[in-house]
Fold this sequence. Notes:
The structure holds two protein chains of two kinds.
Chain A lengths: L7 E8 L5 H11 L17 H6 L6 E8 L5 E8 L7 H8 L4 E7 L6 H12 L3 E7 L8 H12 L7 E2 L8 H11 L12 E10 L3 E10 L2 E2 L3 E4 L5 E3 L2 E5 L3 E4 L1 E2 L4 E8 L10 E4 L18 E7 L5 H14 L4 E7 L3 E8 L2 H13 L5 E3 L6 E5 L4 E4 L11 E16 L3 H10 L3 E7 L4 E9 H5 L2 H8 L5 E12 L1 E8 L2 E2 L5 E4 H18 L7 E7 L2 E8 L15 H16 L2 E3 L2 E3 L12
Parallel strand pairs in A: 1-3, 1-4, 4-5, 5-6
Antiparallel strand pairs in A: 2-3, 7-8, 7-16, 8-15, 9-14, 10-11, 10-16, 12-13, 12-15, 17-19, 17-20, 18-19, 21-22, 21-23, 23-25, 23-26, 24-25, 27-28, 27-29, 27-30, 30-31, 32-33
Chain B lengths: L6 H15 L9 E7 L1 E2 L11 E2 L7 H16 L7 E8 L7 H14 L6 E6 L6 H10 L3 E7 L3 H6 L6 H13 L4 E8 L6 H12 L5 E6 L7 H7 L8 H17 L3 E4 L2 E3 L6 H7 L4 E4 L4 E5 L3 E6 L3 H13 L9 E7 L1 H12 L6 E2 H7 L7 H12 L4 E3 L2 E3 L8 H8 L1
Parallel strand pairs in B: 1-4, 1-11, 2-3, 4-5, 5-6, 6-7, 7-8
Antiparallel strand pairs in B: 8-10, 9-10, 12-13, 13-14, 15-17, 16-17
Amino acid sequence: MPTDSSRIRNFSIIAHVDHGKSTLADRILELTGALTARERVAQFLDKMEIERERGITIKAQSVRLRYQAKDGQEYQLQLIDTPGHVDFSYEVSRSLSACEGALLVVDATQGVQAQTVANAYLALEHDLEIVPVLNKIDLPSADVNTAAEQIEEVVGLDCSGAIMASGKTGEGVDEILEAVVKHVPPPVGDPDAKLRALIFDSWYDNYRGAVAMVRVRDGTIRKGDKVKFMATGRTYEITEIGCFGPHPVSLKEMGPGEVGFFAANIKSVEDAKTGDTVTLMSAPAPEALPGFREVKPMVFAGIFPSDSADYEALRDALSKLHLNDSSFQFEPDTSEALGFGFRCGFLGLLHMEIIQERLEREYGLDLVTTAPSVVYRAHTKEGEVIDVDNPSKMPPVGDLEHIDEPIMKVTIHVPTEFVGATVALCEERRGTQVGIQYATKAHVVIVYEMPLAEVILDFHDKLKSASRGYASMDYELVGYRTDNLVKLDMLLNGEPMDALSVIVHRDTSYHRGRALAAKLKELVPRQAYEVAIQAAIGSKIISRETVRALRKDVTAKCYGGDITRKRKLLEKQKEGKKRMKQVGKVEVPQDAFLAILKID
Amino acid sequence: MSNPTAEPKKVQTSDKRTAHESSDTCTPEPLGIYVHFPWCLNKCPYCDFLSVAAERPEIPHAAYATAVIRELDRRARGLTDRPVRSIFFGGGTPSLWEPDELGRVLEAIEARFESDGAEVTVECNPSSFDRARATSLRAAGVNRVSIGVQGLDEERLRFLGRLHDGPRALASVRTAIDVGLPRVNADLIFGVAAQPPEQAIDEAERVAALGLTHLSVYALTIEPGTSFGALAKKGRLPLLDESHVAESFVGLDERLTSLGFEHYEISNYARRGEVAVHNVSYWRGRDYLGLGCGAWGTVTRERRFRYRNTPSPERYLALTDEWATAPDIDSEEIVAHGEHIDDETALSERIMLGLRLAEGIDFEEITRDLDVVAWTRARLDAAEALAERGRLLCDGNRLRLPKHAWLFADGTISELM
Lengths: 600, 417
């Protein structure tokens, strides 16, 4: 028999990055006895090493807990941990739609931040019951009154029932669980209706194939059922049903309100798309659950092996990562300078960094990643519209009517004293102010519309330094807009460095070209001949720097006491050279391809 | 003493012979001996050799000689069947050493090794070198001196922190020749601050004209860990433009070769048959026994081992002193750094060192000495590409750098390592 839905509570924890969500989740697992103290590794739910290190949840994890409430009843609590970054907001929204309630965790030492608000609004959109939790109250710098005031003013939530908690000491965790039982409504679903289950996560398992995490809305799902995925239209037979407690436990069936996983010989996670609806082939539901959409990468970059011999290894690693993360895309790409590699698409910058780090750490690859680009829409004179995710592939200026670029709505939360610096930065990045709201005396919400291209180019770092680390931001796509954009090429002795081409606004193109040429001059070592570095728009050279020819490269003294040290120096020189890439005849260190990230 | 003028030729041929001998296990490979004397009157700002500033009376002349002899006793074990072709006293400033004490060390070496006709060199500074010293050194068995002239221009000598002036430097060289030291080298430094290339070239010519047999001419190198290194890091050291340094290098080569010197190593010139046997043995990858505080040595027994002795004179003296009373104490305590050199590394070093010489290297000979494949695919490709760019001359297994490409030796060598 499926569990009585009045005893089920499905909830998630939402918070700004670093506000202690995962630690709190661990405490909940511990208190409900799901984890013994011996088993407890900090942040059990963050399975990946990188997640643990960065303190960010990337993949949603879900755990079923038994909880003996103070009312004497035993409840089945389903905790759905959500990804903690704006890059994964679609995944967050799907996870939230599997819940009836959410704990809004706010670090009492930091107060409300951009993603606190973004996540809270997302929860409200899904009609979730929100329980505010003020976390980290054990820290001396915790200021619960200010944090509570901010939640009331900025988010608009009543904080009279907010729970004071500490993930570190465990204080307040039992109150949280009581609040979940009391305030989060039990799931409503029709056991007799046709099966509809929402896929809110999936991952690849070597033995089972893709495994889907689902929330049953209506009906019952059983082992052996023949099911259909309504968005993809594919059909499968369910081979296994289970839940995590947090270790996997097999189940026979799941009824309305229940959350668990199933395996069905699904070949890849691409076939088990987040947001898809599962129904029975024998009795299909007439309508899928709402909210499904295809996730499209927004940020693209070239990933090349430092050593061309690693190309195959890179392809294997990318395929393996893709098995578990269908939002990440890749296809073969070649660059004159960097050789064979891949053009990869990511949900955002963090997503890109994580993939890059996993490739380097888990697969031991040494990579060159080119500067990130957005997807431009090039309108040609012939009336064609071409999506261009690689600036070097932009059609020639002469063929272009105009270029559109993606525009984001960027919401920034910042203490009052940094408003000036923040606004200046946004203006500099071609932002258009949408609004400034003084939410409280000290807390300001600034909203700008800004090209994504400007956001992905170290905007976050610049924002952090302009606000001494206090500002937080969130962004979402609002659409495409035409601007006066041009392609800027960099040339070495007349040969284009394809990986360095960028699309820039005409007004800043001269400045950018000069800065890039100057930066390259620092990064390109002197060679046997003079090297001309040029920045060009179309055929027009807008800036030039010269790297003078190397006149000598020889060790004057090398005797008995010098041998070991000189050998090591020369070995280092050899290693450096091995990693050089060729642009025409010019040898270029890999660093140079990241020059664009290094100019101010 | 054997006839010193005839000796280098003999040594050269004998060294060539050893190439064949080394494959013949009956005749052991010759051994060079290096003795380090760690004291100087003052520390020069560009120098990265181990030296400790001391006034002459403070130096424990006799105790240090005794210590070196004790070390010799230990290190010579199992090696005494190897002929010694060169003995080099370096520093520091070994010309500060009481010649009698230096002579005692030399005697001890000659007593333990077959060293007939060996080249015996002592590094000398003009500030601690006069007729009396030169005569005593010669009497002690020294047949070659290397004088740290460095330059003749007042201003530049001051900049380099030298205690002598130009006339004193010239006088030192003359004295060495006068007292009958058969082979004399002068060290020169060029590319200093605003030094015009012509000045460096003229200085070298003036020194060469004194009649010496050998010249070492070094481009000023800023080494980390020196006063110049620290200044340069802060951007406060005036440096000569690289193109002027290159111009000086080329001009020196032209002038000195026209004067009859053979440019046989990147920084070394010799009259015919007068190459520095000891240094050539480094560049040919031969073993050298290092003795004394801070000395480096590389010795092949079962394996090739490189070591450096403790750089602290106090510690060196104390440890060798302990050996006198407790002969069982582990000798390795004086080693501050030790590494086994495997054959691949040895090959890299042979390439690095050998290509510094005009004669270059012979891969066939190297593969006979070492258990390695010298012509790997990568090396073949690199050699071909370098030859195409005019950086390398390949004649079968013999590789050398054409003189016009010596200025780029490091890059070339690193590609072949």
